[in-house]
Amino acid sequence: MHQNIDDLTDRFEKSLFVLSKTLGPELIRRTQTDLTPSQVFMLYFIRQENQCNVSKLAEKMEVAPSAITVMLDRLENHGFVHRVRDKGDRRVVIAELTTAGEERLNQVVGVQKQIEQYCLAQLDVNELESFVHTLESLASIARMMEPQEVIGSKWIGLSNTEDK
């Protein structure tokens, strides 16, 4: 018999919360890097974009541009980023990673990957393969989902089915 979708959703939410907290921002704090989780995210996003203007960083991090300026000041003081003016529009400030910023980000990402691999290695190889496949499927569903179409809809979930 299938468990009720509400029960499974509760278990999923609790597990996801623990995982995102333990392997996300909390991990950065616990590994005692001299970077905050927000700074790591900013460095990661700048690297992803190669160069990134302050407005785009503010939008991605969902904060005011003035908050980005303060964060960039700190990262620049540590030598992890430098700022340049856009050649086409001098009002636009672009942040770029320095070699030191790239090295520090690689260090933090490497530690995170090492800890994730440790956790995953505790699972049986078949269980791990199934888990990753299911997680990839869920990520694909979430990426394609339109929240407004789901909210208030009358979709049929596991709570409406029973295995007899």
Describe it for me?
The protein has 164 residues and is mainly alpha-helical. The protein has a single domain, classed as Arc Repressor Mutant, subunit A (Orthogonal Bundle), CATH 1.10.10.10. Helix content is 64%, strand content 7%. The chain contains eight helices and three strands; from the N terminus they run αααβααββααα. It has helices at residues 5-22, 25-30, 37-49, 54-61, 65-77, 99-121, 125-144, 147-150; strands at 52-53, 81-85, 93-97. It has a three-stranded antiparallel sheet with strand order 1-3-2. Strand 2 (81-85) and strand 3 (93-97) form a beta hairpin. Helix 4 packs across helix 5. The N and C termini lie close together (7 Å). The model is unreliable at 159-164 (pLDDT under 50). It comes from Alicyclobacillus ferrooxydans.
Topology:
Layout: H1 5-22, H2 25-30, H3 37-49, E1 52-53, H4 54-61, H5 65-77, E2 81-85, E3 93-97, H6 99-121, H7 125-144, H8 147-150
Antiparallel strand pairs: 1-3, 2-3
Helix pairs in contact: 3-6, 4-5
List keywords for this structure.
globular; 3 strands; 164 residues; 8 helices; single chain; Arc Repressor Mutant, subunit A; 64% helix; mainly alpha; disordered C terminus; three-stranded antiparallel sheet
Briefly summarize what is shown:
By secondary structure, this protein is mainly alpha-helical. The protein has a single domain (24-146), classed as Winged helix-like DNA-binding domain superfamily/Winged helix DNA-binding domain (Arc Repressor Mutant, subunit A). Helices cover 64% and strands 7% of the residues.
